[in-house]
């Protein structure tokens, strides 16, 4: 074999060997990409708020023709028509509770995806029919819940300053409106600087990158969050939306919306208030609730729309009868929508 041919073979071997190494490294990189946790870039722990957002749907008579004592606001995805309809027919249907006017609104962002235009037109038709939608022009997503919350506060501060209280409840929550109004009418309930719900005190900042709520030290250096009410449901006096908005530019908005509210409250020097009983706000109960438990709570998360409807029907039937729900728990047939 001549030296020229030998050199050519050496070059070919080196070239093929280099390709093999690159191929192995590439495969390893892909493996890491798919198997490693979805680590966020430093900026992704914050959300784009404040921003130049506007309201694209806001044709509701709420707070215009009358002044409700209590406003119920439900953040819901644009695609959540079934949840909205169920709430309209159950706990969101009440207008006068213990002599107090109550209104219900649904808060939305914009749809994403290929059918966004079609879904937007459906929302406009729904708004014309029910006049209970408020929509802002941010992308509606889990990571943008803080934006959704702050835009809700903006709308409330502008449109409903004379309302006494506002209750935020997720679309998978059952709300016992009568018990809520009874709490708010109690002489011990504050009329200003008031927020209550399932309050988390000394909540640890999670540092595990694999956790959904991971927060690095450069974003939140403290080991614990300020106290905050769990985002599934909380009620506040109507002076707080404007106050929270006033301090929000001083704090970078993190993606965990209830945590961010707690940060704003801390900046204001306000602590959330624990409810009179720790059974008033329930989250993820292990078993379906008894009639007795339902009669005593204000909110609980539910596993389905059907379960939420069941809870409401049982409460409604009990209220039409005399007697103590804690003495007997009747079985009620559930009517699906």
TrEMBL record:
GO terms for cellular component: Golgi membrane. Pathway: Protein modification; protein glycosylation. It comes from the Eukaryota. Its EC number is 2.4.1.-. It comes from Takifugu flavidus. Keywords: Glycoprotein, Glycosyltransferase, Golgi apparatus, Lipid metabolism, Membrane, Signal-anchor, Transferase, Transmembrane, Transmembrane helix. Signal peptide: none annotated. It is an enzyme of class 2 (transferase). GO terms for biological process: lipid metabolic process; protein O-linked glycosylation. It is found in: Golgi apparatus membrane. This is Hexosyltransferase. Belongs to the glycosyltransferase 31 family. One of its GO terms (molecular function) is N-acetyl-beta-D-glucosaminide beta-(1,3)-galactosyltransferase activity. It holds the Pfam family Galactosyl_T. It is a single-pass type II membrane protein.
């Amino acid at each position: 074999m001549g030296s020229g041919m030998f050199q050519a073979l050496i070059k070919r071997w080196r070239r093929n060997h280099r390709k093999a190494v690159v191929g192995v490294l590439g495969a390893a990189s892909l493996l890491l990409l798919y198997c490693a946790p979805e680590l966020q870039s430093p900026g992704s722990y914050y959300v784009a708020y404040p921003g130049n957002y506007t309201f694209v749907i806001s044709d509701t008579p709420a707070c215009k023709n009358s002044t409700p004592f209590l406003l119920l606001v439900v953040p819901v995805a644009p695609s959540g028509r079934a949840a909205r309809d169920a709430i309209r027919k159950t706990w969101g249907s009440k207008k006068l509770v213990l002599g107090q006017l109550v209104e219900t609104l649904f808060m939305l962002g914009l749809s994403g995806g290929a059918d966004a235009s079609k879904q937007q037109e459906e929302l406009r038709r729904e708004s014309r029919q029910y006049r209970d939608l408020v929509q802002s022009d941010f992308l509606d997503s889990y990571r943008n819940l803080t934006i959704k919350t702050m835009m809700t506060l903006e709308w409330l501060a502008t449109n409903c300053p004379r309302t006494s209280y506002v209750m935020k409840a997720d679309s998978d929550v059952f709300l016992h409106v009568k018990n809520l109004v009874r709490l708010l009418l109690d002489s011990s309930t504050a009329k200003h600087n008031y927020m209550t719900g399932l309050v988390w005190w000394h909540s640890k900042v999670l540092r595990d990158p694999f956790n959904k709520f991971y927060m690095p030290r450069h974003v939140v250096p403290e080991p614990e969050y300020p106290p905050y009410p769990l985002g599934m449901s909380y009620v506040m006096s109507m002076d707080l939306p404007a106050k929270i908005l006033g301090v929000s530019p001083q704090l970078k908005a993190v993606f965990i919306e209830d945590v961010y509210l707690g940060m704003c409250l801390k900046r204001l020097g306000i602590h959330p208030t624990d409810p009179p009983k720790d059974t008033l706000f329930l989250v993820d109960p292990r078993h379906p609730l008894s009639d007795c438990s339902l009669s005593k709570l204000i909110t609980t998360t539910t596993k389905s729309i059907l379960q939420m409807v069941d809870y409401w029907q049982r409460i409604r039937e009990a209220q039409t009868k005399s007697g103590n729900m804690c003495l007997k728990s009747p079985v009620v047939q559930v009517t699906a929508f």
